[in-house]
């Protein structure tokens, strides 16, 4: 993932020499991780775009198809896509000669982030179960 952008998976675990996190702290850390690494997915439009990207995994799709599928207005979708592009989980492909947008596609980083998020959630569940 390249750069240090904040909380890591180890934030939900115990740190060396530090007592285990409370369940409340673990959930708060998970929420902070989500805001840093998957911004916008807490919004209805973000959830819809994320679901669409997962459904169309690996396929380039047009903005019109995205808009028709999600039912959100153009401005809401552009805001979510801008956030997703800025963190590298979505790519907007353009014709290199005309600059015209060809489509939207999820990057491999989205899969990495979702897998990491799943591990974090599993750790919170395990922390809860151990109580």
State the gist of this model.
The chain has five helices and two strands.
Structural summary, described in words:
Helix content is 53%, strand content 8%. It is mainly alpha-helical and 131 residues long. The chain has a single domain (22-129), classed as Winged helix-like DNA-binding domain superfamily/Winged helix DNA-binding domain (Arc Repressor Mutant, subunit A, Orthogonal Bundle). Strands 1-2 form a two-stranded antiparallel ribbon. Mean pLDDT is 84; it is low at 1-7 and 9-19.
**What's the gyration radius in Å?**
17 Å
Low-confidence stretches: 1-7, 9-19
The global form is elongated
How far apart lie the N and C ends? 32 Å
Mean pLDDT: 84
Number of strands: 2
Share of residues in strands:
5-15%
Estimated helix fraction: 40-55%
CATH architecture classification name: Orthogonal Bundle
CATH superfamily: Winged helix-like DNA-binding domain superfamily/Winged helix DNA-binding domain
What's the arrangement of strands in the largest beta sheet?
Answer: 1-2
CATH class: Mainly Alpha
The CATH topology assignment is Arc Repressor Mutant, subunit A
Query: What is the H-and-E element order?
Result: HHHHEEH
Largest sheet: 2 strands, antiparallel
Q: If helices are DSSP runs of H or I spanning 4 or more residues, what is the number of helices? A: 5
């Amino acid at each position: 993932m390249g750069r240090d952008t904040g909380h890591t998976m180890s934030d939900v675990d115990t740190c060396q020499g530090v007592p285990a996190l409370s369940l409340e702290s673990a959930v708060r850390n998970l929420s902070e991780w989500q805001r840093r690494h998957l911004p916008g997915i807490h919004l209805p439009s973000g959830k819809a775009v994320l679901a669409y990207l997962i459904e169309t995994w690996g396929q380039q799709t047009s903005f019109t198809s995205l808009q028709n599928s999600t039912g959100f207005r153009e401005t809401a979708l552009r805001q979510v896509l801008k956030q997703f592009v800025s963190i590298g989980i979505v790519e907007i492909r353009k014709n290199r000669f005309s600059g015209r947008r060809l489509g939207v596609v999820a990057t491999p980083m989205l899969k990495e982030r979702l897998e990491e998020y799943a591990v974090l959630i599993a750790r919170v569940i395990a922390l809860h179960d151990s109580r």
